[in-house]
What we know:
The protein is mainly alpha-helical. Helices cover 57% and strands 0% of the residues.
Amino acid sequence: xxxxxxxxxxxxxxxxxxxxxxxxxxxxxxxxxxxxxxxxxxxxxxxxxxxxx
Length: 53
């Protein structure tokens, strides 16, 4: 790129690791919510997660 910035696909290992970890955390939370709903327990969703739906 002319301004010296790396292309968008050039993501460092640490950035990939961080994104993968965030996806794992989000997936685990979704699984816990689904299991709680299935068991009939009340589910509390953080306010910032409600905006994603």
